[in-house]
């Protein structure tokens, strides 16, 4: 028997722009079907195999029963301590692993959650231009935040442009979206 219930449309979904990586994936597949050789610069996925010692460690750890569950939401303490040490070694910055380090599945997830947690209706995010297309910025927009483009290319003094953007914007920007790739 066919489902006769009315189909519900979700207006928020309808307002979202197309996800650019879906569009590029379709274009790549069409080009490959035509026999074209594609060099893929789209998502930043690895282009080589994972080093064998990492695969071996994963296989070993996956056999342990204590790893058959979810991680803590902030990430395991040992990893947060390693992140804090890395920041100290690389940037000479002290980060408290208990209150200032968190583990995410990637930069997009981290930025999306940061925006959801900190942006309110009417807030502004500085967005470097050019930039990679991104879906996490949409999360800021769903919170009612707006964006202000900030020119960032070789012919432009980035810091002068940044200062101008901050000076001329109201309300003052609450955050700056990093330029990816950096």
From TrEMBL:
> What cofactor requirement does the entry state?
pyridoxal 5'-phosphate
List UniProt keywords, sorted A-Z.
Aminotransferase, Transferase
* Stretches of the chain forming a coiled coil according to its record: none
The kind of enzyme this is, by top-level EC class, is transferase
Pfam family of this protein, just one? Answer: Aminotran_1_2
Q: Which residues form the signal peptide?
A: none
Q: What is its EC number?
A: 2.6.1.83
User: What SUPFAM superfamilies does the record point to?
Assistant: PLP-dependent transferases
* Ranges of residues in domain Aminotransferase class I/classII large: 37-131
Transferase: present as a keyword of the record?
yes
The record's listing under InterPro entries reads:
Aminotransferase_I/II_large (IPR004839), LL-DAP_aminotransferase (IPR050881), PyrdxlP-dep_Trfase (IPR015424), PyrdxlP-dep_Trfase_major (IPR015421), PyrdxlP-dep_Trfase_small (IPR015422)
Q: Name one GO molecular function term.
A: L,L-diaminopimelate aminotransferase activity
Q: What name does UniProt use for this protein?
A: LL-diaminopimelate aminotransferase
Source species of the chain: Cedecea neteri
The major lineage groups are: Bacteria, Pseudomonadati, Pseudomonadota, Gammaproteobacteria, Enterobacterales
């Amino acid at each position: 028997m066919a489902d006769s219930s009315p189909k519900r449309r979700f207006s928020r979904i309808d307002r979202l722009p197309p996800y650019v990586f879906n569009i590029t994936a379709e274009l790549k597949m069409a080009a490959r079907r035509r026999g074209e050789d594609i060099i893929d610069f789209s998502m930043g996925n690895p282009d080589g195999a994972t080093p064998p010692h990492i695969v071996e460690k994963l296989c070993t750890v996956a056999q342990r029963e204590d790893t058959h569950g979810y991680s803590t939401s902030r990430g395991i303490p040992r990893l947060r301590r390693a992140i804090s040490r890395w920041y100290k070694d690389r940037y000479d910055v002290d980060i408290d692993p208990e209150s200032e380090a968190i583990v995410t599945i990637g930069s997009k997830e981290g930025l999306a959650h940061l925006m959801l947690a900190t942006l309110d209706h009417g807030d502004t995010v500085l967005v470097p231009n050019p930039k990679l297309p991104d879906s996490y910025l949409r999360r800021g927009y769903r919170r009612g935040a707006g964006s202000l483009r900030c020119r960032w290319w070789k012919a432009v003094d980035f810091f002068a442009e940044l200062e101008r953007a901050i000076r001329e914007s109201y309300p003052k920007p609450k955050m700056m979206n990093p330029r990816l790739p950096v």
